[in-house]
Amino acid sequence: MSGVERPELGPVPETALWTLWHRALEARRPDGVLVDPKAVELVDRIDFPFAERFGSGELVGQLQGLRAACFDREVADFLARCPRGTVVNLGDGLETQAWRVDNGRARWLSVDLPEAAALRRRLLPPDERRRILDCSATDPRWMDEVDPADGVLITAEGLLMYLRPSEARALIGACAERFPGGAMVLDTVPRWFSRRAVQGKLRDRHYLAPPMPFGMDADQRGQLATAHPAVTEVREVYPEGGRGLVRALLPFARRVKQRPSVVALGFAES
């Protein structure tokens, strides 16, 4: 299918294309760790030099697929407990999770900056259960759009690293205070990775990663509980499966402190 959409995005919103591309690469594989036909469809519809700009590395695609699968498991577990709950995807760009794990009853709210939200609206039109809101994740006004009656899970996939540390903590604290009994799933990059991004030293082919001010090593995840007294659970969500050398190394990777991590937070009931 020829491209029909020519996106023009700033450095941080453009990361939505980077993650989309690598999810699609993984989803195209017969032995892929992520089933994501919607991502493949979107790549085919977007007129953008994905391979030239982002490369076609098999390892990066698999790691992105494993990360997405960590979030999917947490969302699927939430929907099993709260089938009519609301999943809020903060800064999700062109994430297609709502098509991978939707149960037909849940409500989904995508919250993103105007340029990213506009692209999502064109490519993934909202419907009565899937809404899109033009709003920064750090602007608490998006919380007014969430009905917590049937349960709330907030995801921040590929988001917090682009915030200042104080902004990341404030966002976690605001969610914990506003949504008692809710939960949040987020991911972090290690401090060394954050430093290199801030220094402009993370380059892949023709793509320079934007600055990532917030970094946290995996063994520091307990510090997230200090964002607010209502954060009562902090646990890591480990990748599962994989293939080849990645599959063999995953159990040993857990021992490495300076690595990326996916973390689930639980909020106290009011």
List keywords for this structure.
single chain, 270 residues, alpha/beta, Rossmann fold, 7-stranded mixed sheet, two-stranded antiparallel ribbon, 9 helices
Describe this structure as you would to a colleague.
It is a single chain. The protein is of the alpha/beta class and 270 residues long. It has one domain (15-267): Vaccinia Virus protein VP39 (Rossmann fold), CATH 3.40.50.150. It has helices at residues 15-28, 37-45, 50-54, 58-81, 97-100, 114-123, 165-178, 191-198, 244-253, and strands spanning 86-90, 107-112, 130-134, 152-156, 183-188, 203-204, 207-208, 231-237, 261-267. The strands form two sheets. It has a seven-stranded mixed beta sheet with strand order 3-2-1-4-5-9-8. Strands 6-7 form a two-stranded antiparallel sheet. The longest helix is centred in the first third of the chain and has 24 residues, at 58-81. The mean pLDDT is 95.
